[in-house]
Write a structure and sequence with these properties.
298 residues; alpha/beta; Chemotaxis Receptor Methyltransferase Cher, domain 1; Rossmann fold; seven-stranded mixed sheet; three-stranded antiparallel sheet
Length: 298
């Protein structure tokens, strides 16, 4: 992104967003550059209002008078904790149980039956939910598994759920949801997988032990190192890669292809499409679903 596309030295001083705090063009570009460096997320200038609304709260809490001061803080070694808070504040976490339901229908009717048969015979089943947010996606996968195999937790079946945001990971580990949040879970599965819990006078529903045993939550930056050694039969990464620029997207798709077992399944978001070097490696398997191609698996 060109810092001064018009060649006008005063453009950096103009506010992209002005309120009680000023977010200048230079401030925005510094924040966008740090977000891209840390998480691979591309932040266009059209998101300036979002940046202002989410970070102004941080500035006020820290007693800072300007976004310039905030940029100086998070760019310095002494501000690494706040830089992480900035990343959390700018990360979108919109999710729900059984979101994009066709993926779970395909999982139930096509992908899982042969995998669960492998598990019954003592084999290993591994599924990855990348960008798991508050746990709705990996728990939806687990609920689908339990609907087909109630004793799944006693077999070698594991769902790895990862996210860069430690705050939402903690919420996911707790596995407590309000009644309206689990309303999208079919009633038989809702009864099977959630128990009523009273916490501080609030009626909540917590994932039960059978579901909890299937899912492991870990912090992971998708543009960083992936410590997993084994491969996966299924990978969900939905509405995450869309926030990366095109070169980063291409790398992520190729890395996912390299983590899939032969004939493995990749489910992506409704606005996403596999691109770049990964295209020959992944064959279309339906709406926003791809299978590792035979040539790639050979």
């Amino acid at each position: 992104m060109n810092a001064n596309p018009q060649g006008n030295p005063s453009s950096a001083k103009r506010g992209l967003v002005e309120g009680d705090l000023l977010l200048s063009g230079d401030d925005f570009r510094r924040i966008a550059a740090m977000l891209h460096a840390d998480a691979g997320i591309f932040l266009p200038e059209s998101k300036a209002t979002l940046v202002y609304s989410r970070l102004a709260k941080r500035l006020r809490m820290l007693g800072l008078a300007s976004f310039r001061d905030y940029c100086e803080l998070v760019a310095d070694q002494t501000g690494l904790d706040e830089r992480k808070n900035m990343l959390v504040a700018l990360t979108t976490n919109v999710t729900s149980f059984f979101r994009e339901a066709h993926h779970f229908s395909y999982l139930r009717d096509h992908a899982l039956p042969p995998l669960l048969q492998v598990a019954k015979q003592g084999g290993r089943v591994r599924i990855w939910s990348a960008g798991c947010s508050k746990g709705h996606e990996p728990y939806s996968i687990g609920i689908t598994i339990l609907s087909l195999m109630p004793d799944a937790a006693s077999h070698d079946i594991k769902i790895l759920a990862t996210d860069i945001d430690t705050t939402v990971l903690e919420q996911a580990r707790r596995g407590l949801y309000e009644e309206n949040v689990i309303a999208s879970v079919p009633k038989p599965e809702r009864t099977r997988s959630f128990d009523p819990v009273n916490e501080a006078g609030t009626r909540l529903f917590g994932v039960n032990e059978s579901l909890r045993k299937l899912v492991s939550f870990r912090e992971l930056n998708l543009v960083g190192q992936w410590p997993m050694r084994g491969s996966f039969q299924v990978i969900f990464c939905r509405n995450v890669v869309i926030y990366f620029d095109e070169p980063t997207q291409d790398k992520i798709w190729s890395r996912f292809a390299g983590m899939l077992e032969p004939a493995g399944l990749l489910c992506i978001g409704h606005s996403e499409r596999v691109s770049g070097p990964a295209l020959p490696l992944l064959a279309n398997a339906g709406t926003t679903m791809y299978r590792l191609s035979r040539g790639a698996a050979a």
